[in-house]
Description:
33% of the residues lie in helices and 20% in strands. By secondary structure, it is an alpha+beta fold. Strands 7, 8, 9, 10, 11, 12 and 13 form a 7-stranded antiparallel sheet that branches. The chain is elongated. It comes from Ciceribacter lividus.
Amino acid sequence: MALHFDASEYAARLDRLTARMAEEKLDALLLFAQESMYWLTGYDTFGYCFFQTLVVRADGSLTLLTRSADLRQARHTSTIENIVVWVDRVNADPAMDLRNLLSDMDLLGCRIGVEYDTHGMTGRVARLLDNQLTTFGQIVDASYLVSNLRLVKSTAEIGHIERAAALADDALDAALPLIRAGGNEADILAAMQGTILAGGGDYPANEFIIGSGADALLCRYKSGRRTLSEKDQLTLEWAGVDAHYHAAMMRTILIGEATTRHRELYAACEATIREIEAVLRPGNTFGDVFDTHARIMDERGLTRHRLNACGYSLGARFSPSWMEHQMFHAGNPQEILPDMSLFVHMIVMDSERETAMTLGHTYLTTEEAPRALSRHPLELLVR
Protein backbone atom coordinates (compact mmCIF):
# COMPACT_ATOMS: atom_id res chain seq x y z
CA MET A 1 0.00 0.00 0.00
CA ALA A 2 1.14 3.59 -0.76
CA LEU A 3 1.12 4.81 2.83
CA HIS A 4 3.19 7.73 4.15
CA PHE A 5 3.04 6.64 7.81
CA ASP A 6 3.42 3.34 9.63
CA ALA A 7 0.60 1.31 11.15
CA SER A 8 1.23 2.56 14.69
CA GLU A 9 0.73 6.18 13.57
CA TYR A 10 -2.67 5.43 12.03
CA ALA A 11 -3.66 3.34 15.06
CA ALA A 12 -2.81 6.23 17.39
CA ARG A 13 -4.91 8.61 15.31
CA LEU A 14 -7.88 6.25 15.40
CA ASP A 15 -7.53 5.92 19.18
CA ARG A 16 -7.56 9.71 19.54
CA LEU A 17 -10.64 9.95 17.33
CA THR A 18 -12.67 7.26 19.09
CA ALA A 19 -11.80 8.84 22.44
CA ARG A 20 -13.22 12.18 21.24
CA MET A 21 -16.27 10.40 19.84
CA ALA A 22 -16.86 8.87 23.26
CA GLU A 23 -16.64 12.32 24.86
CA GLU A 24 -19.22 13.59 22.35
CA LYS A 25 -21.34 10.45 22.86
CA LEU A 26 -21.25 9.63 19.15
CA ASP A 27 -22.12 6.13 18.02
CA ALA A 28 -20.74 6.84 14.56
CA LEU A 29 -19.11 9.62 12.58
CA LEU A 30 -19.54 10.28 8.85
CA LEU A 31 -16.36 11.75 7.38
CA PHE A 32 -16.83 13.76 4.19
CA ALA A 33 -13.62 15.81 4.38
CA GLN A 34 -10.87 14.25 2.30
CA GLU A 35 -8.34 15.63 4.80
CA SER A 36 -10.02 13.64 7.57
CA MET A 37 -9.98 10.41 5.57
CA TYR A 38 -6.35 10.95 4.58
CA TRP A 39 -5.27 11.71 8.16
CA LEU A 40 -7.09 8.71 9.59
CA THR A 41 -6.34 6.06 6.96
CA GLY A 42 -3.99 7.42 4.26
CA TYR A 43 -6.79 7.38 1.68
CA ASP A 44 -5.56 9.64 -1.14
CA THR A 45 -7.92 10.71 -3.94
CA PHE A 46 -9.71 13.64 -5.53
CA GLY A 47 -12.85 11.51 -5.73
CA TYR A 48 -14.44 13.62 -2.99
CA CYS A 49 -15.84 15.75 -5.82
CA PHE A 50 -18.45 12.99 -5.92
CA PHE A 51 -20.46 11.50 -3.04
CA GLN A 52 -18.32 9.46 -0.69
CA THR A 53 -18.10 9.05 3.04
CA LEU A 54 -16.06 7.10 5.56
CA VAL A 55 -18.18 5.69 8.39
CA VAL A 56 -16.30 5.48 11.68
CA ARG A 57 -18.07 3.54 14.40
CA ALA A 58 -17.48 4.04 18.10
CA ASP A 59 -15.68 0.70 18.25
CA GLY A 60 -13.13 1.95 15.69
CA SER A 61 -14.39 -0.05 12.72
CA LEU A 62 -14.21 1.72 9.34
CA THR A 63 -16.37 1.43 6.23
CA LEU A 64 -15.92 3.52 3.08
CA LEU A 65 -18.86 4.21 0.78
CA THR A 66 -17.57 5.41 -2.59
CA ARG A 67 -17.79 5.00 -6.38
CA SER A 68 -16.25 2.19 -8.41
CA ALA A 69 -13.57 4.56 -9.73
CA ASP A 70 -12.15 4.89 -6.21
CA LEU A 71 -12.35 1.26 -5.14
CA ARG A 72 -8.79 0.41 -6.15
CA GLN A 73 -7.58 3.85 -5.07
CA ALA A 74 -8.79 3.17 -1.54
CA ARG A 75 -7.35 -0.34 -1.47
CA HIS A 76 -3.95 0.89 -2.66
CA THR A 77 -3.55 4.07 -0.59
CA SER A 78 -5.35 3.39 2.69
CA THR A 79 -5.74 1.11 5.68
CA ILE A 80 -9.47 0.72 4.94
CA GLU A 81 -10.50 -2.91 4.51
CA ASN A 82 -14.28 -2.63 4.20
CA ILE A 83 -15.25 -0.73 1.02
CA VAL A 84 -18.81 -0.49 -0.30
CA VAL A 85 -19.51 0.84 -3.81
CA TRP A 86 -22.61 2.80 -4.71
CA VAL A 87 -23.58 2.45 -8.38
CA ASP A 88 -23.60 5.35 -10.83
CA ARG A 89 -26.98 5.38 -12.53
CA VAL A 90 -29.79 7.69 -13.61
CA ASN A 91 -31.43 9.36 -10.61
CA ALA A 92 -28.94 7.74 -8.24
CA ASP A 93 -29.28 8.70 -4.57
CA PRO A 94 -26.14 7.53 -2.78
CA ALA A 95 -27.55 8.95 0.46
CA MET A 96 -30.11 6.14 0.30
CA ASP A 97 -27.27 3.65 -0.11
CA LEU A 98 -25.70 5.23 2.96
CA ARG A 99 -28.91 4.94 4.96
CA ASN A 100 -29.16 1.25 4.06
CA LEU A 101 -25.51 0.76 5.00
CA LEU A 102 -26.01 2.43 8.38
CA SER A 103 -29.10 0.29 8.95
CA ASP A 104 -27.09 -2.86 8.19
CA MET A 105 -24.54 -1.62 10.74
CA ASP A 106 -27.33 -1.49 13.39
CA LEU A 107 -27.07 2.29 13.74
CA LEU A 108 -30.79 3.07 13.45
CA GLY A 109 -31.79 5.56 16.15
CA CYS A 110 -28.17 6.24 17.11
CA ARG A 111 -26.31 9.53 17.60
CA ILE A 112 -24.35 10.15 14.38
CA GLY A 113 -21.92 12.99 13.72
CA VAL A 114 -21.53 14.47 10.24
CA GLU A 115 -18.76 16.61 8.71
CA TYR A 116 -20.83 19.31 7.03
CA ASP A 117 -18.24 22.10 6.74
CA THR A 118 -16.06 20.65 4.00
CA HIS A 119 -15.61 20.87 0.25
CA GLY A 120 -16.66 17.22 0.04
CA MET A 121 -20.15 18.19 1.20
CA THR A 122 -21.96 20.20 -1.46
CA GLY A 123 -25.35 21.75 -0.85
CA ARG A 124 -26.97 19.00 -2.91
CA VAL A 125 -25.21 16.27 -0.94
CA ALA A 126 -26.30 17.87 2.34
CA ARG A 127 -29.91 17.96 1.19
CA LEU A 128 -29.81 14.32 0.07
CA LEU A 129 -28.17 13.31 3.33
CA ASP A 130 -30.60 15.19 5.56
CA ASN A 131 -33.55 13.86 3.58
CA GLN A 132 -32.45 10.28 4.32
CA LEU A 133 -31.07 10.59 7.84
CA THR A 134 -33.19 13.20 9.66
CA THR A 135 -35.63 10.51 10.75
CA PHE A 136 -33.00 7.76 10.91
CA GLY A 137 -31.23 8.89 14.05
CA GLN A 138 -29.93 11.88 15.99
CA ILE A 139 -27.78 13.75 13.46
CA VAL A 140 -25.29 16.31 14.84
CA ASP A 141 -22.79 18.63 13.18
CA ALA A 142 -19.31 17.28 13.91
CA SER A 143 -17.49 19.31 11.25
CA TYR A 144 -14.50 20.23 13.40
CA LEU A 145 -13.95 17.08 15.44
CA VAL A 146 -11.19 15.63 13.26
CA SER A 147 -10.06 19.07 12.11
CA ASN A 148 -9.21 19.99 15.71
CA LEU A 149 -7.40 16.70 16.29
CA ARG A 150 -5.22 17.47 13.27
CA LEU A 151 -4.05 20.80 14.70
CA VAL A 152 -1.18 19.30 16.73
CA LYS A 153 1.27 17.44 14.52
CA SER A 154 3.08 14.21 15.30
CA THR A 155 6.83 13.80 14.90
CA ALA A 156 6.27 11.98 11.61
CA GLU A 157 4.01 14.74 10.31
CA ILE A 158 6.55 17.40 11.26
CA GLY A 159 9.09 15.62 9.07
CA HIS A 160 6.84 16.09 6.04
CA ILE A 161 6.17 19.72 6.97
CA GLU A 162 9.89 20.44 7.25
CA ARG A 163 10.44 18.88 3.83
CA ALA A 164 7.61 20.99 2.43
CA ALA A 165 9.24 24.13 3.87
CA ALA A 166 12.55 23.23 2.22
CA LEU A 167 10.75 22.86 -1.11
CA ALA A 168 9.11 26.28 -0.62
CA ASP A 169 12.55 27.79 -0.09
CA ASP A 170 13.84 26.01 -3.20
CA ALA A 171 10.95 27.50 -5.19
CA LEU A 172 11.89 31.02 -4.13
CA ASP A 173 15.52 30.35 -5.01
CA ALA A 174 14.41 29.26 -8.48
CA ALA A 175 12.21 32.34 -8.94
CA LEU A 176 14.57 35.10 -7.84
CA PRO A 177 16.90 35.06 -10.91
CA LEU A 178 13.83 35.41 -13.15
CA ILE A 179 12.35 38.37 -11.25
CA ARG A 180 13.75 41.30 -13.20
CA ALA A 181 12.68 43.89 -15.75
CA GLY A 182 11.55 41.96 -18.82
CA GLY A 183 10.94 38.80 -16.82
CA ASN A 184 7.67 36.99 -17.42
CA GLU A 185 5.24 35.77 -14.79
CA ALA A 186 4.75 32.51 -16.69
CA ASP A 187 8.46 31.66 -16.45
CA ILE A 188 8.50 32.51 -12.74
CA LEU A 189 5.46 30.38 -12.01
CA ALA A 190 6.79 27.46 -14.06
CA ALA A 191 10.14 27.60 -12.27
CA MET A 192 8.55 27.58 -8.83
CA GLN A 193 6.08 24.77 -9.43
CA GLY A 194 8.60 22.78 -11.46
CA THR A 195 11.18 22.99 -8.69
CA ILE A 196 8.73 21.59 -6.14
CA LEU A 197 7.65 18.74 -8.40
CA ALA A 198 11.24 17.96 -9.38
CA GLY A 199 12.10 17.86 -5.67
CA GLY A 200 9.57 15.09 -5.10
CA GLY A 201 6.81 17.37 -3.85
CA ASP A 202 3.14 17.51 -4.74
CA TYR A 203 0.74 19.89 -6.42
CA PRO A 204 -0.61 22.43 -3.89
CA ALA A 205 -4.21 22.37 -2.69
CA ASN A 206 -4.78 25.73 -4.39
CA GLU A 207 -3.04 27.65 -7.14
CA PHE A 208 0.06 29.71 -6.42
CA ILE A 209 -0.74 33.42 -6.31
CA ILE A 210 1.22 35.61 -8.70
CA GLY A 211 0.52 39.19 -9.71
CA SER A 212 2.55 42.21 -10.75
CA GLY A 213 1.80 45.88 -11.30
CA ALA A 214 -1.75 46.62 -10.18
CA ASP A 215 -2.36 42.86 -9.90
CA ALA A 216 0.17 42.72 -7.06
CA LEU A 217 -2.63 44.00 -4.82
CA LEU A 218 -4.65 40.82 -5.37
CA CYS A 219 -4.35 37.97 -2.86
CA ARG A 220 -6.09 35.36 -5.00
CA TYR A 221 -4.95 33.60 -8.15
CA LYS A 222 -6.26 34.93 -11.47
CA SER A 223 -5.67 33.83 -15.03
CA GLY A 224 -3.36 35.81 -17.32
CA ARG A 225 0.38 36.53 -17.37
CA ARG A 226 2.37 39.75 -17.55
CA THR A 227 5.93 40.88 -18.33
CA LEU A 228 7.65 42.83 -15.56
CA SER A 229 8.44 46.52 -16.09
CA GLU A 230 11.60 48.48 -15.23
CA LYS A 231 9.91 49.59 -11.99
CA ASP A 232 7.44 47.04 -10.75
CA GLN A 233 6.08 45.03 -7.83
CA LEU A 234 5.43 41.30 -7.77
CA THR A 235 3.35 39.52 -5.13
CA LEU A 236 3.86 35.78 -4.69
CA GLU A 237 2.14 33.35 -2.36
CA TRP A 238 3.10 29.72 -2.71
CA ALA A 239 3.64 26.55 -0.70
CA GLY A 240 6.03 23.67 -0.69
CA VAL A 241 4.07 20.42 -0.46
CA ASP A 242 5.18 16.98 0.69
CA ALA A 243 2.72 14.10 1.12
CA HIS A 244 0.00 16.78 0.92
CA TYR A 245 1.51 18.67 3.90
CA HIS A 246 1.93 22.37 3.10
CA ALA A 247 4.40 25.03 4.20
CA ALA A 248 3.40 28.40 2.75
CA MET A 249 5.38 31.57 2.10
CA MET A 250 4.44 35.04 0.88
CA ARG A 251 6.51 37.95 -0.45
CA THR A 252 6.09 41.15 -2.43
CA ILE A 253 9.29 41.59 -4.42
CA LEU A 254 10.21 44.95 -5.93
CA ILE A 255 11.79 45.46 -9.34
CA GLY A 256 13.99 48.49 -9.98
CA GLU A 257 13.48 50.33 -6.72
CA ALA A 258 11.58 50.41 -3.45
CA THR A 259 9.45 53.51 -3.11
CA THR A 260 9.08 55.31 0.20
CA ARG A 261 5.58 53.83 0.54
CA HIS A 262 6.87 50.32 -0.11
CA ARG A 263 9.43 50.76 2.65
CA GLU A 264 6.80 52.11 5.05
CA LEU A 265 4.53 49.12 4.43
CA TYR A 266 7.41 46.66 4.67
CA ALA A 267 8.49 48.15 8.00
CA ALA A 268 4.95 47.67 9.34
CA CYS A 269 4.81 44.07 8.12
CA GLU A 270 8.22 43.16 9.52
CA ALA A 271 7.55 44.81 12.90
CA THR A 272 4.20 43.05 13.21
CA ILE A 273 5.60 39.61 12.47
CA ARG A 274 8.38 40.14 15.01
CA GLU A 275 5.83 40.97 17.70
CA ILE A 276 3.67 38.03 16.68
CA GLU A 277 6.66 35.73 17.15
CA ALA A 278 6.53 36.70 20.84
CA VAL A 279 2.83 35.81 20.99
CA LEU A 280 3.00 32.58 18.95
CA ARG A 281 3.56 30.32 21.92
CA PRO A 282 1.53 28.31 24.48
CA GLY A 283 -0.59 30.40 26.83
CA ASN A 284 -1.87 32.62 24.03
CA THR A 285 -4.69 32.17 21.53
CA PHE A 286 -5.21 32.57 17.81
CA GLY A 287 -7.25 35.67 18.67
CA ASP A 288 -4.25 37.13 20.52
CA VAL A 289 -2.17 36.78 17.34
CA PHE A 290 -4.74 38.72 15.34
CA ASP A 291 -5.07 41.38 18.03
CA THR A 292 -1.31 41.97 17.83
CA HIS A 293 -1.56 42.32 14.05
CA ALA A 294 -4.50 44.71 14.22
CA ARG A 295 -2.96 46.87 16.97
CA ILE A 296 0.33 47.50 15.19
CA MET A 297 -1.22 48.07 11.77
CA ASP A 298 -3.85 50.39 13.20
CA GLU A 299 -1.25 52.37 15.15
CA ARG A 300 0.50 52.99 11.83
CA GLY A 301 -2.67 54.21 10.14
CA LEU A 302 -3.12 51.08 8.02
CA THR A 303 -6.54 49.96 9.22
CA ARG A 304 -8.23 50.23 5.83
CA HIS A 305 -5.28 48.61 4.04
CA ARG A 306 -4.94 45.46 6.20
CA LEU A 307 -7.06 42.31 6.19
CA ASN A 308 -9.32 40.85 8.87
CA ALA A 309 -7.15 37.75 9.29
CA CYS A 310 -3.39 37.29 9.37
CA GLY A 311 -2.80 33.57 8.95
CA TYR A 312 -4.01 30.09 9.75
CA SER A 313 -3.11 26.53 10.58
CA LEU A 314 -1.51 24.42 7.86
CA GLY A 315 -1.33 20.68 7.37
CA ALA A 316 -2.30 18.02 4.86
CA ARG A 317 -4.93 19.61 2.64
CA PHE A 318 -6.73 18.91 -0.63
CA SER A 319 -8.17 21.21 -3.31
CA PRO A 320 -9.57 23.82 -3.42
CA SER A 321 -7.67 25.35 -0.48
CA TRP A 322 -4.60 24.71 1.63
CA MET A 323 -6.10 26.75 4.50
CA GLU A 324 -7.28 24.93 7.63
CA HIS A 325 -10.42 25.93 9.50
CA GLN A 326 -8.49 27.54 12.35
CA MET A 327 -7.50 31.11 11.44
CA PHE A 328 -5.94 34.13 13.13
CA HIS A 329 -8.96 36.41 13.37
CA ALA A 330 -10.68 38.47 16.05
CA GLY A 331 -11.98 36.53 19.01
CA ASN A 332 -10.70 33.07 18.03
CA PRO A 333 -10.28 31.25 21.38
CA GLN A 334 -8.19 28.40 19.94
CA GLU A 335 -5.20 27.95 22.25
CA ILE A 336 -1.72 27.82 20.75
CA LEU A 337 -0.09 24.48 21.59
CA PRO A 338 3.32 22.99 20.84
CA ASP A 339 3.79 21.22 17.48
CA MET A 340 1.32 23.29 15.48
CA SER A 341 2.31 24.38 11.97
CA LEU A 342 1.05 27.94 11.52
CA PHE A 343 1.33 30.30 8.57
CA VAL A 344 1.67 33.96 9.57
CA HIS A 345 1.12 36.46 6.75
CA MET A 346 1.07 40.22 6.58
CA ILE A 347 -0.95 41.57 3.64
CA VAL A 348 -1.16 45.35 3.25
CA MET A 349 -2.71 46.73 0.07
CA ASP A 350 -2.81 50.50 -0.49
CA SER A 351 -5.28 50.80 -3.37
CA GLU A 352 -5.08 54.60 -3.53
CA ARG A 353 -1.35 54.46 -4.30
CA GLU A 354 -1.46 51.04 -6.00
CA THR A 355 1.21 49.86 -3.58
CA ALA A 356 1.38 46.27 -2.35
CA MET A 357 3.37 44.68 0.45
CA THR A 358 3.17 41.16 1.80
CA LEU A 359 5.43 39.12 4.06
CA GLY A 360 5.03 35.72 5.63
CA HIS A 361 6.19 32.18 6.22
CA THR A 362 5.34 29.06 8.22
CA TYR A 363 6.26 28.45 11.86
CA LEU A 364 6.35 25.36 14.04
CA THR A 365 5.30 26.10 17.60
CA THR A 366 7.29 24.74 20.54
CA GLU A 367 7.06 24.91 24.34
CA GLU A 368 8.64 28.36 24.04
CA ALA A 369 9.50 30.51 20.99
CA PRO A 370 8.20 29.39 17.57
CA ARG A 371 10.62 28.05 14.99
CA ALA A 372 10.53 29.58 11.52
CA LEU A 373 10.70 26.76 8.99
CA SER A 374 12.09 28.88 6.14
CA ARG A 375 15.81 29.43 5.66
CA HIS A 376 15.02 32.77 3.98
CA PRO A 377 15.09 35.85 6.23
CA LEU A 378 12.16 38.26 6.37
CA GLU A 379 14.04 40.92 4.43
CA LEU A 380 12.76 43.35 1.83
CA LEU A 381 13.57 41.90 -1.60
CA VAL A 382 14.49 44.38 -4.33
CA ARG A 383 15.73 43.06 -7.68
